[in-house]
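Quick entry, no commentary yet.
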Amino acid sequence: MNKDSAVTIFESLASGVRLDIFRLLVRAAPHGCVAGQIAIELGIPPTNLSFHLKALTQAQLLTVEQEGRFMRYRANIELMDELVNYLTAECCSGVSAPPISDATEDA
């Protein structure tokens, strides 16, 4: 993952509605949910939902598959794993951080 990809993902998740959608789909993994089910569970009007689903799909946070006349959305958990790995790749530069209790005593 590169910086531009990470920024795109964070921008997409900066919306509370989109974050709720992504978290719902993580809980529904691996089967995902159809759009109507997402709208009902989160109380989002269908027109608003389609806008947010499109943004999440363009950021590659969701995959979508047509099932008859329905669209099934799934969280791209592998991409989220890549993001977490990107964020923590240089954690502490290989040096163990002091325990939190030690850090607060020095303050």
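second:
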Amino acid sequence: MAPARCARAALALPALMLGVQASPEYIAEMCRGERCDQMTHPILDWDPEGQKCICIRHPCWHDAGQKHWCDAPTHPHLTFSYDENKKLKCGCSAWADTTTKHIAMDLCPGHRCDDGKFPILDYNNKTNKCICSENPCWNANGFKHFCDEEGAPVLNMRLDKDGKKICECKKSWSRYAKEEL
């Protein structure tokens, strides 16, 4: 699936702000140049056993035989986290979350990011700490990116092989589960 059009607006920020790093950059850095274009497996993730980048399906699409999606207009985005025992928790949120399974289950079980200003769970490998971050596309290459198309509201970031941020809009994971799975 080709990414939908993303909108962007110029930011007037001090030069120091342009270097701010945010989630999901831990996975993006390990998976430079990789991308996931198939809606059946839209999430770029890291496989710690195979030591490689992989594309995975949303964990809540097949949760012990149950398929989750979100219908509420105020909370249309399907989210996931894992508790301290690595048990999957699915829910609905007002904002799209691009957290990865490896971060949520392997590195940060029991952590969630429920603040709309810092909605994405990430991992800082220098401090070995789980952090809640802004979407990295809110400040990418001097622009604030956002997705303004109803059919593709998930603002996703990846890095090209040279480390340049690529911001793109992806189809709603919740809508896909409801309408196509």
